[in-house]
Amino acid sequence: MDHWLSYAPGDFLMFGPQVYWRLFEMHNVATWPLPVLAPPLGAVVALTLATGRQRAPQCAFAAAALACLGAAHFLLARYAPINWIAGWAAWAFGLQALALVGLAAFHRTGAAPARADTAAAVGWAFLAGAILFYPLSGVVIGRVLAPAEIAGLAPDPTALACLGLACVLLRGWPRVALSVIPLAWCAAS
């Protein structure tokens, strides 16, 4: 019975940090050149949205839908074999992509709303963090750039970008509805 008391919480982990970061490295190699193209493309979408161009919200919703599909692909291809819940999360990201496609198709036409409220400021911070700073965060703490988590390829920055987009473009129940899956992923992650 004494040997049961020798276990620590870390003994119940399914895999270690090295395995986790290796998943991103393998995924970035397998999806090359997307890891290099995704951050600048995300920045272009965000800048287009910020300038208030015609149809910018629809383009942003469509780009976010593609990003959610990319995150779902990572979850199914890389993460699900070592964590059974990742398969269910991939379906959730697919559902998020469908919701974003619906918004891209049925969102009222016109430019992005020029709002200066707190939610919009938080949304822009989330978008900037997901697109620009999240991929570089590992370098800051001493990791190499190869296993970088990139919005559109990894679930964490993709969820953060979806939250940012919801805060910038939506109000009321549509914002809440579009935030449920990303918030659930952030809580689980």
Structure overview:
- The protein has helices spanning 17-30, 34-51, 56-79, 85-106, 118-140, 155-169, 172-188.
- It is mainly α and 189 residues long.
- The longest helix has 24 residues, at 56-79.
- 36% of the residues are buried.
- Structural class by helix and strand composition: mainly alpha
| Unreliable runs | none
Largest sheet: none
Spell out the helices and strands N to C: HHHHHHH
Mean pLDDT, as a whole number? 88
Given the structure, what is the number of helices? 7
Rg, nearest Å: 18 Å
- How many strand segments? 0
Beta-strand portion reads: under 5%
Q: Percent range for helical residues?
A: over 70%
Task: Please render the helix and strand layout as text.
Elements: H1 17-30, H2 34-51, H3 56-79, H4 85-106, H5 118-140, H6 155-169, H7 172-188
In short:
The chain has helices at residues 17-30, 34-51, 56-79, 85-106, 118-140, 155-169, 172-188. With 189 residues, it is mainly alpha-helical.
Keywords:
single chain, 0% strand, mainly alpha, 189 residues
